[in-house]
Amino acid sequence: MSTRRKPIGTRNESSLHRTLKYKYTGPGGKTEKKVGEYFADGVRKDGEYIEVQTGSFAPLKKKVKEFAVYGKVRIIHPVAVTKRIEVYDPGGNLLYKRKSPVHGSEWSLFDALLHAPELPLQKGVSIEILLADITEKRVRDGKGSWRRKGVSIKDRELSAWHESIVLKKPADYLRFVPFKKNEEFTASMLAKRAEIDKWTAQKALYVLNKLKVVKKIGKKSREYLYIRGK
After folding, report:
1. What are the respective helix, strand and coil percentages of the chain, to the nearest 5?
2. How many CB atoms within 10 Å of residue 205?
3. Cα–Cα distance between 177 and 173 in angstroms, integer?
4. pLDDT tens digit sequence for 74-103
5. Domains (ranges, CATH) in the chain?
6. Residue 84 near residue 99 (C-beta atoms within 8 A)
7. pTM of structure
8. Positive or negative CA dihedral for 122, 125, 130, 136?
9. What is the pLDDT of residues 99-129, one digit of tens each?
């Protein structure tokens, strides 16, 4: 999805993106609002800018910085707690449906923040994690990725809404640091305490260190050692 020059085309916009765009923009707001050389997904009646982003936040860095000059910015990041996959033939007939073995959580945020770790430091910028069930519709048309054996993703829909987690300032990210003040820990220890995999813990600590929520103080064996930074 391009962030410059033109708004997202409705033909390329998923049902998930469209649903969240209108929901968060709310009554009296405007969608696909041009601001400088960018388009905002929405501008609420109170002037808050809305951006719905399902993938990496890297493309938002310059865009959000420009919006923040004019007002507050809220990034909506939907995460599939449960993803159901429906596969159709080119004629629109359902071939089969299944549940994906992958389950997202609030920790999935760090996949999106990995290449834009300092975005939450931008004044007036908040991030809302939307934990939801999402249905992904695919078509066996031979045009998709080789990983999916030519099956194309045609749409994503919001199936159920579980919880929203709003992060307005760096201190709010302490929810991801389940350790006491001055308690030393490593990525392995965070993974065990939070019940996540080590790679997710490493990504989280990279971002949290950039936000100064944790502080790197040395090494223990082959791992970096951290303490809470605030």
Report:
1. 25, 35, 35
2. 24
3. 8
4. 999 999 999 999 999 999 999 999 999 999
5. 1-168 (no CATH), 171-230 (1.10.10.10)
6. yes
7. 0.91
8. negative
9. 999 999 999 999 999 999 999 999 999 999 9
